[in-house]
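hiii so um. not sure if this is the right channel but i have a protein structure encoded as tokens and i wanna go backwards to a sequence. like what aa goes where. can anyone help
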């Protein structure tokens, strides 16, 4: 009898955790923004002053860049928590897939991302999707060990190539080694699109 009661309690705890954990992550991401905003704000102020001398100036620039990256990670965590907690309400706007591909190239370096093709208009959460596409392209570079990759816009789809056998599962969110890629897959699925592999490529299909 005691064992049975204990099993029920564990099951209830797991059910509660299943529903509350995304909210916990979302709350943590929200609350972390206040101290991070303070760090980032003062770092930017000191960097703009520009009279710290070396190596202090360089250190402050590194702190500024790192705090910006932390803010982006919190954005990704918050987005994932809203999606998993069924609280994601996308702001759907039209955007061309070629523009999304060019955005990835601008963020990661046009010498590293070759953009090709003719796009088409899709309706997505533009800011989040732009970050998601860039994250997938970055994951292809990072986990594939490449110096450059192609991002081809073909109508409502984007093809990222080449992708290795080892990096493919990372871009699909099956091998959780890249937060940006994993959240991008969650996002695209929530928008009604899909991320699949085809040989040495990952195909991102976005809803029209």
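sure thing!! here u go:
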């Amino acid at each position: 009898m005691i064992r049975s009661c204990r099993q029920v309690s564990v099951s209830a705890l797991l059910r509660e955790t299943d529903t509350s954990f995304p909210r916990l992550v979302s709350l943590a991401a929200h609350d972390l923004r206040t101290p991070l905003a303070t760090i980032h704000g003062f770092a930017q102020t000191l960097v703009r002053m520009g009279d710290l001398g070396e190596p202090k100036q360089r250190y402050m620039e590194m702190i500024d860049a790192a705090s910006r990256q932390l803010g982006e990670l919190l954005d990704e965590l918050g987005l994932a928590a809203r999606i998993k907690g069924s609280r994601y309400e996308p702001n759907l706007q039209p955007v061309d897939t070629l523009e999304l591909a060019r955005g990835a190239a601008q963020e990661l370096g046009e010498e590293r991302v070759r953009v090709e093709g003719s796009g088409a208009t899709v309706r997505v959460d533009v800011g989040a999707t732009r970050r998601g596409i860039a994250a997938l392209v970055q994951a292809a570079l990072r986990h594939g060990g490449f110096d450059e990759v192609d991002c081809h816009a073909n109508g409502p789809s984007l093809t990222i190539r080449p992708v290795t056998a080892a990096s493919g599962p990372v871009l699909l969110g099956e091998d959780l080694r890249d937060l940006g890629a994993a959240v991008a897959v969650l996002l695209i699925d929530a928008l009604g699109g899909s991320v699949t592999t085809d040989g040495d490529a990952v195909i991102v299909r976005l809803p029209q």
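oh and The CA atoms of residues 100 and 130 lie 6 Å apart.
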